[in-house]
What we know:
It contains 12 helices and 12 strands. By secondary structure, it is an alpha/beta fold. The structure holds 5'-O-[(R)-(carboxyoxy)(hydroxy)phosphoryl]adenosine (KG4) and zinc ion (ZN). The site of zinc ion has 4 residues, from helix 5.
Amino acid sequence: xxxxxxxxxxxxxxxxxxxxxxxxxxxxxxxxxxxxxxxxxxxxxxxxxxxxxxxxxxxxxxxxxxxxxxxxxxxxxxxxxxxxxxxxxxxxxxxxxxxxxxxxxxxxxxxxxxxxxxxxxxxxxxxxxxxxxxxxxxxxxxxxxxxxxxxxxxxxxxxxxxxxxxxxxxxxxxxxxxxxxxxxxxxxxxxxxxxxxxxxxxxxxxxxxxxxxxxxxxxxxxxxxxxxxxxxxxxxxxxxxxxxxxxxxxxxxxxxxxxxxxxxxxxxxxxxxxxxxxxxxxxxxxxxxxxxxxxxxxxxxxxxxxxxxxxxxxxxxxxxxxxxxxxxxxxxxxxxxxxxxxxxxxxxxxxxxx
Length: 354
Ligand code: KG4
Ligand code: ZN
């Protein structure tokens, strides 16, 4: 039965299933190559990650071709390392889960092909994980007992969305960016300030030396209905302020304050659309920013909700979250066919509920 669903067909929920062993998770959708092993109860048995930051830094952004080649080079070694760390043989696995989208197609092909190869060789179930779902569910691993529904703000270099997480496979996007992702806005603004890429953390440090009120900057979409975001106008205003000779530290502080205000406003709107929310959850690399967290924490508190954030290493791209999504999907009886094609675009709403 299981074998049949592995060979053909996509995402077939066949009812709850007992997981026969740990799940190997693989992440290759952008510029982190990662592998992790999770026990069926969510215990992290081993994790390994190779950041390609240094390979892309000279270009000021991720170069897809370089990323795909690096994944190909690094992934087999990382998988061997996690198996060794956990003292396990591949034959002990209960399944293999790999990010199959959204992301850069070269990397997705490398990761999911290797995962399928292991699945074929060992007759294991394969799960094609949606990267956004993996981010969305991480909090249920790091904060056990987190109940649905919760509001997720996914804030990274590639994604910027407000999502109602209502259950496994049940997501409603309440808003997303109309132009740049918030991390992208941080990185582009930081570049204008002469800071190295990726500039988010550097901009945060520079902002600490500035006066957020010294340079007035716009608050795009503030107070407008809905939960969409827009950051490109803010970035243009940053460029203009710097061209006028404003102090970079003041511009950084003003930029961060503007983003914090906008995110808080959008979160408030989103919570109004999800009255049963049990928590406000942040994920993505930008969630590491203390000023933004403080602003979102105040919004959560005003609604009597906790602000939950996975630790930074599980907030940014990693394979633990992919393995966890795999554990949850396999336990729910989901298997993907080996004909599942990786998808550069794969909106969360296209997933099926269980
Ligand atoms: O989730 P992530 O690691 O992956 C991608 O989106 O690829 O997010 C990276 C993004 C970058 O844009 C980086 O500048 C931003 O997160 N970031 C920050 C901070 N730390 C990382 N942005 C603002 N403040 C920070 N402290
Ligand atoms: Zn991500």
